[in-house]
Amino acid sequence: MSKVAIVILADTAGPGDFGRAVNGLMTAKEFKDAGDEVQIIFDGAGTKWISKLTEEGGKYNDLFDSVKDKVSGVCGYCAGAFGVTDDAVSCNISQLNEYNGHPSFKKLVDEGFTIITF
């Protein structure tokens, strides 16, 4: 069984970034469907995806909904820096503040997770 942490760093600025975020979610779904242990973390500019993936009528809402239970959170510092803390709160997504306001990737590695970034 694999243990994977999918980290979405892609901004919301362009179609390439959109593709990276969707690829991250599809990768998480593949691992989830296989019964593997998977976490999704939104970090950096990627924290802005929470509101985009929950917009009414969004093209990839169903994909996001299918893996939302695997979202471990957003970077607390970055959510604040990008002004999306309220979006995370309204979507019941935790802020990760384990290491100076950021998620602890060392903790994930120590727990045996492979980290894949998008």
Write the layout of secondary structure elements.
Layout: E1 3-8, H1 15-33, E2 37-42, H2 49-52, H3 61-67, E3 71-75, H4 76-81, H5 85-90, E4 95-96, H6 105-110, E5 114-117
Parallel strand pairs: 1-2, 1-5, 2-3, 3-4
What does this structure look like?
With 118 residues, this protein is of the alpha/beta class. The protein has one domain (3-117): DsrEFH-like (Hypothetical Protein Ychn, Chain: A), CATH 3.40.1260. The protein has 6 helices and 5 strands. It has helices spanning 15-33, 49-52, 61-67, 76-81, 85-90, 105-110, and strands spanning 3-8, 37-42, 71-75, 95-96, 114-117. The protein has a 5-stranded parallel β-sheet. Strand 1, helix 1 (15-33) and strand 2 (37-42) form a beta-alpha-beta unit. The longest helix has 19 residues, at 15-33. The chain is globular. The model has no long low-confidence stretch (mean pLDDT 96).
CATH classification, class level? Alpha Beta
Distance between the termini: 22 Å
- Mean pLDDT over all positions: 96
Q: Order of strands across the widest beta sheet?
A: 4-3-2-1-5
> CATH-wise, what's the superfamily?
DsrEFH-like
Q: What is the total domain count?
A: 1
Question: How would a textbook summarize the main sheet?
Answer: 5 strands, parallel
Helix residue percentage: 40-55%
The stretches of 5 or more residues where confidence is low (pLDDT under 50) are none
From the coordinates shown, what is the CATH architecture? 3-Layer(aba) Sandwich
Structural class based on helices, strands and sheet pairing? alpha/beta
| Radius of gyration over all CA atoms, rounded | 13 Å
Q: Total helix count? A: 6
